[in-house]
């Protein structure tokens, strides 16, 4: 039972607090004496309420108490208590629930106007003992008096910073830090992808490791583990949403590349001195080669027209049913707004959100361009053909809605295009083609028509032509035609004498094997 009225010599300063029932003194509790006054330091969870038991000036005395920092005094230090060394000003040790750590408080330069900073030396234990920590603190204080900032080499807690904490610092910095050469921070979608890879792969496998103790073999093992599916799980994202986190070489390579970027950033911020991911060979991801062939393009066009006709017929039936007060028929076809958006995607090679989020203020039909103030690669201009301009100009305009392709909600653009595409590609018989493959098909058709990669890169809005190479897949038909034409020219240059057993018909370009003896004239 607590003893509410227990008093100690010199405790008159606590009388008012006791009368107001602001704190309680417990028996068998360690008591420490400071300047003739007593303050209670209970063990266990009640320690959280210490600020209720001691006055403000006594809390300050707890934080600022001084003494010789020795192993014995460090081991006896209570949780959340700080001990300042009385032989070296600025050197201290503080114990938290995670353990005791040495630190140094200093000013860079001299005078009160000099900025005051604090740096952690290390956690109590090998190699940091009171003597080694005091020697390090003395060196740091000397450098600070000479005008050098010792925290440039030793960040606060850098030697005990976990990979998870390092990732959090990286993401927070990326929200405001400008990308070199671009003058802007990372895009929200890119940051969202980085957070996903960090939370779902990096943290579960490496988050608890001390960042400075991660080695190259650990990074290699991390990539192998992600590829093997060791971070695979099923998690709930929304009240009705579920995410299936999968492994594979592709996500393993991307997560490892992100981990290397985090370590490189840590080096620039003086958290680490070397990058353990340097030299790790990333898994090669399979290049996406899906694009619409000529027959598939024809099938898609027929499916688009049929979906539009079905929608118009359904609307007519709904109008007649409402007039006759009959039940409405089941919906058929697809929303013409979604179909028009798919057509524009196919004929411009633009990204999905560049078209769905298109605003009327960004459309210049006279010049035939879409002026996007921002995109994945920054400010972008998309040239459009007369057909695309006609499709955009035919879209209905609504007051209060700035978007070209309007949605069901007032003031919002169309959403759910992916579901429309799934139904449409099934009807077209091309279930393997993704919506983003329309962009690949645009680049493939352009290169097949003879456009250079530089020109295709400008049409797609790529900042790096190497990205365009992954999109621009040369179709088999133009490639075969080029091989045939080149082979025919070489054959004619050789005079066909080098192919005695092959006869080539010049008119048709066909070839067949013949018996050379039947073509050899009889000797006299």
Task: Trace the largest sheet across and list its strands.
Answer: 3-4-5-6-7
Mean pLDDT across all amino acids: 75
Structural class: alpha+beta
Helix content estimate: 40-55%
The rounded Rg comes to 37 Å
Would you give an account of this structure?
With 524 residues, this protein is α+β, with helices and mostly antiparallel strands. It is 42% helix and 12% strand. The chain contains 19 helices and 14 strands. Helix 10 packs across helix 14 (417-428), helix 11 (336-348) packs parallel to helix 15 and helix 16 packs across helix 17.
Briefly characterize the structure.
The chain is α+β, with helices and mostly antiparallel strands and 524 residues long.
Keyphrases for this structure?
elongated, disordered C terminus
What topology emerges from the helices and strands here?
Blueprint (H helix, E strand, L loop, with lengths): L14 H5 L11 E4 L2 E4 L9 H4 L2 H8 L2 E2 L3 H5 L6 E4 L5 E6 L2 E9 L8 E8 L6 H16 L17 H12 L13 H19 L9 H13 L4 E6 L2 E5 L3 H20 L25 H30 L12 H13 L3 H5 L6 E2 L4 E4 L7 E4 L2 H8 L23 H12 L8 H12 L4 H8 L4 H7 L4 H18 L8 E3 L6 E3 L2 H4 L5
Parallel strand pairs: 3-4
Antiparallel strand pairs: 1-2, 4-5, 5-6, 6-7, 8-9, 10-11, 11-12, 13-14
